[in-house]
């Protein structure tokens, strides 16, 4: 996180089939399946409705107001990678737009998560390139100061290492450590199967008060019903 001026070309990525097995599960489910960990701060939002992506992290450490390292990172991308960018200090300038999206998509990127600004939102939506950002900001950037690529970094309060799996949708962004990928996928699958049964019971009119056995604890806590 303090390694400036380096590009790590070789990173360990989990098997593609393991990433694809995780992909069907939403951010909320994955967060719960990991014991309610891994979430980025909720200010990271999709720049257009229904944007979603899952991929292996290629990390980018940017300098404020400078997007040079995003161009450097493009060379390191492989199909299925997701760019995760953070800045050495807070900055909401428009680091990324349509032209960079075109470049990184051609290299196989499935999206971008950035603790900074993004612009060209209409064009990004038209090309359906998912971006999750701290801000939308037309202010451009320069190319003057080096940062780093494929180093561990903190993005919106979440630790992201190169090769970790990042999922993003309308509920937010979650980071799944690469070594926990299969474990989290199994837990997410079990959680969704359990929720399917609960959904059927709710649809039939059963109350959570009864399904979860809440009445006695509520009474013990002093809850009274008054007619």
From TrEMBL:
<comment type="subunit">
    <text>Homotrimer.</text>
</comment>
<keyword id="KW-0456">Lyase</keyword>
<dbReference type="InterPro" id="IPR014165">
    <property type="entry name" value="LigK_PcmE"/>
</dbReference>
<comment type="similarity">
    <text>Belongs to the class II aldolase/RraA-like family.</text>
</comment>
<protein>
    <recommendedName>
        <fullName>Putative 4-hydroxy-4-methyl-2-oxoglutarate aldolase</fullName>
        <ecNumber>4.1.1.112</ecNumber>
        <ecNumber>4.1.3.17</ecNumber>
    </recommendedName>
</protein>
<dbReference type="Pfam" id="PF03737">
    <property type="entry name" value="RraA-like"/>
</dbReference>
<dbReference type="GO" id="GO:0047443">
    <property type="term" value="F:4-hydroxy-4-methyl-2-oxoglutarate aldolase activity"/>
</dbReference>
<dbReference type="InterPro" id="IPR005493">
    <property type="entry name" value="RraA/RraA-like"/>
</dbReference>
<dbReference type="InterPro" id="IPR036704">
    <property type="entry name" value="RraA/RraA-like_sf"/>
</dbReference>
<comment type="function">
    <text>Catalyzes the aldol cleavage of 4-hydroxy-4-methyl-2-oxoglutarate (HMG) into 2 molecules of pyruvate. Also contains a secondary oxaloacetate (OAA) decarboxylase activity due to the common pyruvate enolate transition state formed following C-C bond cleavage in the retro-aldol and decarboxylation reactions.</text>
</comment>
<dbReference type="GO" id="GO:0008948">
    <property type="term" value="F:oxaloacetate decarboxylase activity"/>
</dbReference>
